[in-house]
Amino acid sequence: MGELRLPSHVGPGGFDHGDVHQPTGRVFIAHTANGTVEVVDGPQLRHVATISDCPEASGVLCSPDGGAVIAAARGAGHILLIDPSSLEVRAKVIVGGRPNGLAWDSRRRRVLVADVAGDSISIVDAQDGQVLTTTGLPGRPRWAVYNHDRDRYLDNVRTPSVVAVIAAETGAVVTQWQVSSEGPHGLDLDLPSNRALVACDGGRVVALDLSTGAEVGSVPIAGGPDAIWFDGASARLFVAIGKPGAIQVVNTLTLSVDETVECALGTQTTALDKLRRRLYLFEPGSGSVLAFSLL
Questions:
Q1: CA nearest 39: which of 6, 63, 70?
Q2: What does pTM read for this prediction?
Q3: How far apart are the C-alpha atoms of 185 and 78, rounded to whole Å?
């Protein structure tokens, strides 16, 4: 649908995770190379603002209710709580380590923050910025999600290859689910099919039963992934793969790759606007955002 150049990189790292604020269609993008969060008007494909003080920006999360935006500053050990309307930083919360993965607890308005340096997670109250608890994990965490129906977080762990199941109220690790492919990375929930979808460095997407944690199937993909997004309206999973540079579209009903869209080398992070049916790709080589329409 179009391409937008973002502010030029001033350092290494390109882009990391992004997310879409569903009420407005604004896209919030972790600009790792600049230590900023870039804000884009998605419907108009227009750059709106740059939010600073996010060194080595590594993750962005928009709450499903549209009330909060959280950004992780991996290079400074803090997260930013951002007002999605004014784009002002409401609070800077020191969590320590190298925060990366984020997940939003919609019941309590809390955010899980995964620390890739300390192999741990912290839970932060998004209303007052208080760090409520910190819990160790069996290895380095990757991306995380909140499973509302069962009131728990799921967090991928690179080594050992497991998904850590974490009680939302206490932050305690309840159990671990084994993943057959190495390096669980991208993670999303296919709630209609009661499955967690885990994209792994080993080149597979693995489906786990949300009731038992048992593997119920998998599909090979073209390489090691990063961010993934599940679209329940079409039963498709969008998997970004930096090398060779592709977006693969996985049919989650058949666990097969329906389509491969070639893109630039290093394009490994995306954001999905489910309401407006758009997928945004963040291309580090050109410093651009590419917008695709979902048919």
A1: 6
A2: 0.96
A3: 22
